[in-house]
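FIELD: query
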Amino acid sequence: MASIPAIITVLIYLILVPLMIFFLLKDKDVVMNWLSRFLPSDRTLVSHLWQEMDAQIGNYIRGKVYEIVIVGVTAYIVFSLFGLNYASLLSITVGLSVLIPYIGAAVVTLPVALVAYFQWGFDPVFIWLVVAYFILQFLDGNVLVPILFSDVVNLHPVAIIVAILVFGGLWGFWGVFFAIPLATLVKALINVWPTREEQLSEAGA
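FIELD: result
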């Protein structure tokens, strides 16, 4: 009985959020024109910020989709070669874990290790599987991610960790989930914000 309100809330969001996204996409021009009425006539800074965010978030989402597919397929190949039980389910979990940087990889390690342990115990096969899994995670974080996101997000690992800590502390799981897009927003705002030299040059002109 105590969980009924939470279930109803989830059902409401499952219905209303897709509807809201549908109408926002359908009437995007109408909504944007209505919102523009509340903005100042000189919207140079806002326009530059919007263009940069639109490009970076779009490329970030595409990069994440590619990363999920690559990591998931590679994990399935590795698990299948070792004959690990539930290889398909575990590979999907490993692929989706890249949505939450660092934390997702750490959390998904537990079910992979448990399934391997109950299947083989502390056998050499178990050790080699864990080694192969950590190699996969290492290549994902140090090779694949820089290739996919170096020209798009261009965020230092320290900036990503700080964003996870800050936004996760503010909004919990969803803050961690949207940490990189929010950090990208902050970075885009810093990039388009006029510096003191630019302001002085504009004033001199």
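FIELD: remark
The chain has a mean pLDDT of 80.
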